[in-house]
Write a structure and sequence with these properties.
about 170 residues; 10 helices; Serine Threonine Protein Phosphatase 5, Tetratricopeptide repeat; 2 domains; mainly alpha
Length: about 170
């Protein structure tokens, strides 16, 4: 909602006021303001709009997810690099319902920017492999599936990867 620099300025200001409150022996106010500045720093690294978009996606509300993502006007200036990756990742999931070409572009951009969780990166590569498979680009799909399998350390996507590999044998 706020640009990155404003979030940092507000966090630094509240931290300084909190330190002053400690100096003046108003310990309760100092603790509260220090925690408040910590929340602002957290919001610098975890964008609230992307968080709300993920909540809508969990409910399978794609139009609601897209509404929350559209509130981010300029992702390059208002989001950190990993947040930009998640921005394009969510757009890729939404567009995979309608237009595979646009979804492919968004997934590639998300993989290029990077995602902070390995299973999210594995899911993005697996989704991109599914798009490549539908476009009859078997070699690229095979490479992406192998990369997704390597990234899936906890085995959450093994069934989907096996199913996609069986489908690729039919092509």
């Amino acid at each position: 909602m706020f640009p990155k620099i404003i979030k940092l300025i507000l966090a630094l200001t509240t931290l300084l006021i909190g330190c002053y409150e400690f100096y003046e022996n108003y310990i309760g106010n100092g603790i509260f303001l220090t925690l408040l500045s910590g929340i602002m720093v957290l919001l610098y690294f975890k964008n609230e709009m992307i968080f709300l978009a993920f909540l809508r996606l969990r409910k399978q509300d794609f139009s609601g997810t897209e509404r929350w993502l559209n509130k981010i006007k300029n992702p390059k200036s208002s989001l950190v690099r990993k947040q930009q990756g998640y921005f394009y990742y969510l757009h890729g999931i939404i567009q995979s319902q309608n237009n595979l070409t646009i979804a492919e572009k968004h997934f590639k951009k998300a993989i290029q920017l990077g995602l902070s969780m390995k299973h999210d990166m594995a899911m993005a590569k697996m989704s991109l492999a599914g798009i490549m498979m539908q476009k009859r680009r078997k070699r690229e799909a095979t490479l992406l599936l192998a990369e997704a399998k390597k990234l899936d350390k906890h085995g959450m996507l093994t069934d989907q990867v096996k199913m996609m590999q069986q489908q690729m044998k039919r092509i």
